[in-house]
Amino acid sequence: MITAGIDIGSITTKAALIAEGKIRGTKVIFTGYNAEQAGTNVYEELLKELGIEKSDVGRVVSTGYGRNSVKFMDKAMTEIICHGVGAHYLNPRARSVIDIGGQDSKAIILDEKGKVKNFAMNDKCAAGTGRFLEVMARALEVDLDGFGALSLRAGDPSRISSLCTVFAESEVISLISKGEKRENIIAGIHESIAARIAAMANRLRIAPLVVMTGGVAKNIGVVKALERKIGMAVEVSEYAQVNGAIGAAILATGLK
Amino acid sequence: MNKMPEIVLFFLAKIKKLALHFKKKKKMKEIMMVYYMEAKSARISGRKVAWITSGGPVEPLIAMDVIPVYPENHGAMIGASKMGTDLCEKAESMGYSSDLCSYARSDIACATVNGGPIGGLPRPDMLICCNNICGTVLKWYEVQARYFNVPLFIFDTPFCHVGYAEEAGRYVRRQLDEYVLFLEKACGRKMDSDHLKDVGKLSLEGQRLWQAVLATTANSPAPMTAFDAFYHLALIVTLRGTPLVIDYYTQLLEKMKDRVARGIGAIPNEKYRLLWDNIPIWPRTRWLSEKLASHNACLVADTYTSAWCGTTKYIDENNFFDSMAEAYTRIYLNIGVDEMARTVLEMVDTYKVDGIVMHSNRSCKPYSLGQYDIQKIVEKEKGIPCLMIEADMVDERSFSESQISTRIDAFMEIIKQQKGA
């Protein structure tokens, strides 16, 4: 039986198809302003790529902030549960999940069965999420994909003290005008995110094995900065960004 | 006031008739309407109006026939009417910080524009400020004392980190005498101590009845929810010490007992029982109620409404006046986090609670500080999940619906998972 998971996030929409406990395929597209359309598009495009008919798919679970706008879903579940299930599937030894998405960041504690014991979400604002990195990439005129590699070359991370993304952008612009090196600024941005996430994660008392999910996990700079701040190794699966959709697809197998 | 114009006498008579009519009906909405009407026409009827803090000792006011008015109760009404954001913005334009309590901001702004759902509160003749709930009230009431140019009495209740120190008891007790002197001066006549004794007895009886009403929700299914309690709370807060409160809660208790006997629950399908902590998010109580009900979850109890019957154990029925000192000092917001946690743990057992919803209220530090510690203690001792919702009791700008909706859904998913549903 094939099941599907659709994760509609603020920046990207993801789909995953699972059959007989194995990942058949995943896809990521930009959400744009029409969440419902994005959900439909990512699903249809993935089915087409894999040569699967809609009628071959059993249950569909949707998640993410746009989970209720997916008309063809059988059930909507929060990304907390989905990320927990996905992380456990990808690595059954995972006990803590740190998910950094477009505008949300979360820390999730799992038990040995992959069930969520506790969670925390970002406080009141989106500084420290993908949105923050997007804004910074624009200010620095650097491709966001290059952030990770660039930051690893930094000798001396800049200190970015603003709590607010918009004010931090001003701070970065002023650093640029002072002649501060791009790598150092980017490393400073990563430190800023890591500090914020670490505070939230430590409050939850995360413990190894720590895995990171969500789009920001693709940024090696953030991962390394986070490892330093929490003092633990952080594992990142190749499926990190689609972890939520995978979890949703697995949960769909449990639906009658 | 030797001879009042006929039109005024006519008007007064109409209010009295209406008051009697609604008092017989005994519905909260009508009672509150009459209460505010009488307060707003106090000038004409020759009575005095005192503004008092929610935890302030109201019994001496009742005994002196002074009408007590509660800016915080009014703040709740402002929040519930969704008028809080505009009033807070007005206060900020007056120069008050957006970090300041939203009750304070709303009230200060409201006084200058007579805003809010009832056209503003009646001018006070005096202000009674008791800091057992917080320190913000001190400055807030000083501001209002200057604005209205009326006398202010400050009742200073030292914080009870651990227990109730003897010297604190002596200090507070002496202030009760000063309070009576203040009232006698403001009203131009002596306090009738016998009458005050009677008011004290009524106050205690009212608190015990309120306690009994709240205790009915220990039953499953709960006959009412905490949202209902937030609504019925108004009387024990504002008119404690009057016979009206006894009548109302006696009726309410009978109604709840009847529902319990017939197995009638407040929500159609009560599967999960939750405890609420902190002041309600007044502009969003309906939304929260429906959201939780959609998960078959019932808020069966809360720490806020139970605060108005939480110190009956310190009251001496036969010596109300003296024991008021301890009763007003050892309220829920004036004690250490350890004791607060113990109260919460007891409530988890009494009300058979599956999870706790904590409102991290931007406006109330005394209530919100320590919530993470209480959360940790409850998770450790009871193994039940505790959700934290960040919002504000009146200022809707601090309420982020999508974020909060997701947190509630995830919390309920964990509970359902735990209970094996």
Description:
- The complex is a heterodimer of chains A (256) and B (421).
- With 256 residues, chain A is of the alpha/beta class.
- Chain A folds into 2 domains: 1-91 and 242-256, ATPase, nucleotide binding domain (Nucleotidyltransferase, domain 5); 93-236, Nucleotidyltransferase, domain 5, CATH 3.30.420.40.
- Helix content of chain A is 40%, strand content 22%.
- Chain A has 8 helices and 10 strands.
- Chain A has a 5-stranded mixed β-sheet.
- The longest helix of chain A is centred in the C-terminal third of the chain and has 22 residues, at 182-203.
- Chain A is globular.
- Chain B has 421 residues and is α/β, with parallel strands linked by helices.
- Chain B folds into 3 domains: 1-42; 43-192, Rossmann fold; 197-418, Rossmann fold.
- Helices cover 55% and strands 10% of the residues of chain B.
- Chain B contains 19 helices and 8 strands.
- Chain B has helices at residues 6-25, 28-40, 42-45, 59-63, 71-80, 84-93, 102-113, 136-148, 166-187, 193-215, 226-232, 234-238, 243-261, 285-293, 320-329, 337-350, 365-368, 371-382, 401-418; strands spanning 49-52, 67-69, 126-130, 152-155, 272-277, 297-302, 355-361, 386-391.
- In chain B, the strands form 2 sheets. In chain B, strands 2-1-3-4 form a 4-stranded parallel β-sheet, with helices on both faces. Chain B has a 4-stranded parallel β-sheet with strand order 6-5-7-8, with helices on both faces.
- Chain B is globular and about 75 Å long.
- At the A-B interface, helix 2 and strand 8 of A face helix 19 of B.
Labels describing this entry:
heterodimer; A: 256 residues; alpha/beta; Nucleotidyltransferase, domain 5; 2 domains; five-stranded mixed β-sheet; 8 helices; 22% strand; B: 421 residues; Rossmann fold; 3 domains; four-stranded parallel β-sheet; 19 helices; 55% helix; 10% strand; globular
